[in-house]
Amino acid sequence: DIQEVQGIHWVDGIVIGVYFVFVFAVGIYCGFSKYFKRWYHKYIRRRLSSGNQESPDAEEEQNSNSSSFFLAGKDVSWWAVGCSLFASNIGSEHFIGLASSGAQDGICTSFGEWTSIFAIMLLAWLFVPYYLRSAVYTLPEFIEKRFSKSCRMYLTVISLVMYVLTKISVALFAGSIVFKVLLGWNIWVSATVLVVATGLYTVSGGLSAVIYTEVAQTFILIVGGITVFIICMVDVGGYSNLSKNLPDNMSHLWQPLNHPNFPWTGVVFGMPFVSIWYWCTDQVIVQRILSAKNLPSATRGCLLAGFMKILPPFMMVVPGMVSRSLYASVRKDPNTAFIVLVQNRLPIGARGIMMAAMLAALMSSLASVFHSSSTLFTMDIYREFKKRRQERSREETTSSIQEVDEQEILVHDESNEKEYVLVGRIAGVVVTIVGIAWIPLVQLLSQQLYIYTHKVMSYTAPPIAIVFLLGILWRRSNSYGAFTTMVVGFIFGMTRLILEAIITSNPNIYTKSPSFIHAILTVYIKSNFLNFCACFSLLSAIVMIVVSLATKAPSQDQTQWALTLSHLKDMFEGKDRSEPEQPEQPDIMSVESGSTQVEDVRPQRMSFLRNSVAHLVNVGLTLVLLGGVVALYIGFA
Which of 269, 275, 268 shows the shortest CA–CA distance to 127? Predict the structure, then answer.
């Protein structure tokens, strides 16, 4: 019998307390150190003798600048990018959901994690160069440059809706399960505490606070997860002995066509599009890449996250399988698999480390969504609304007054940086409130958190993934095809989601329907969600290709080298994001000696050498990562 733990031991409480102190210290330092820098630079400027002079480091007044708040000043190292990507992806829904699915379906649940590694490599080598060169804040802004403003606005709204459906409400619900079992808190108290704690360092410090706090949390995640895995393997005597105590199909990665959740057809043809949307086109993830200092750092950060993605099945899926083999109650309620394991198998102290890891995962995911939601709303909706209003006011003025107004508007835009940051913070709060209100509906739609999130993504992600893929790979794709694909795809996918929820709550609608409607519902509603995703992706690609070919070709500005795969060599030149706006100039130092001009090409050669070495290292890491994933597929087949 499982013994319920009432409260937590004082040692575990100290461990969790130390964790919170450390996390908040990192977040507060990243946030408020910029205020000190801003005050310092203002003080230096006042001390300068000439009123026209400025401090040489004046541009480092960061926290009132939207580039700093939303993209961390575009100066984040590759290791911070990689750790932040991993920590943003792994939330409490992964601990609860992956362990639950592992207890119910077995090792095949790992497909969701290991398939995403291919999407991460695609992000590193295909999407990242174009995201950085286009110099955008958000992915909807990239879509506007490639297609149109209507596509941008539509994608922004859909992204905010998907954050509520798949991220905020699910993460809060999973965290509430943890607090309810361990501390006895109800769902609303748990959600409120988590939101307030996460928002303190997120809102105060911007993306720098989020990213560098996630670096610290990544260490806790890995240590806690590996601790659970080691203890589990010792308890059951290794993976081979574990397989003997479970149904045979649970120890195999590849499953037959009739598997309810992970058939091999859905995993091969459907899941990659979900992974592409999540890793290559989702603002929460890509915002970390946009904050990288240069292309090699962004690429290497992606690859580091890819290596880390090998770990979750061992930290969560396998422990879920162990929990099923040890506890009869887990076979009745798989959602308790991981929590029961933490309660009963971990010693005092280690239990606190694991609870801290789960809190770290939850806060990282919430912090990422808070910040990305505020970025999307501010940069893609609020700022565009202000621009339109200013353009309308300029059109109403006379030509003489218009020149004066343009200068005033320019100054006004610069002063509005603080306003953008404030609006972004308010938007994050509003989206969070909506996410909390959605929590009860998560319970109604599905009791399996991991399956729930993948279902919602399978019904909404394929059109967006297809638009981004064809937008970069196919120059002929245009705004008409992109907008039609997203609108038709959203209607098609949400119809399935709504009908599935209705039929699940009232099965008589399906069983008592006429034979013709029953056949349609069987194919449209009752088919596996990953198989549906594969067909949905194909349909989206057909719609975009047909509509694009039937309408006029995109303009030259929409197919420039920074937005489409115009020239393959562009991917390997390692240019900075500012280069598309500047004429190409050799990095040459000239020294005149008499009438002869001597050119020093050493800086240019060194820059080329550094870029070449960085790309070679990244290629080598990619090959190692690819070989590791293939070995996992073969080893657990």
Answer: 275
